[in-house]
Design a protein that fits this description.
The chain is an alpha+beta fold. It contains six helices and five strands, in the order E-E-H-H-E-H-H-E-E-H-H.
Amino acid sequence: MYIINGKKYPCCTSVTMGIIGGKWKTVILYHLMDGSLRYNELRKKMKDVTERTLSLQLSQLQEDGIISRRVYTGKPPLKVEYSLTEFGKTLIPLLKEIAEWGEQAVENYVAKNN
């Protein structure tokens, strides 16, 4: 049993899924693999996510130390960028494998339905 931030996890895989699981977190992380993005840039890449959901997912990933939020206050308008932390960057190989597996799954389902 693992306890992280007051949450109990029965095994290591549940820790991973507890942090990056869900419909949108891996999508956010996938888009941040190549570098920092502003909030609106993420919104454009993720057209189906609501603003509330995106904000919540970004906050959760930030709380878990996976992404960082940098605010530039030099001159208006305010600029906010999100990027992977060093800890978050350790997920890149996993994210690439998840994406590759997803492509294989699509091919599998397309082949079955044709």
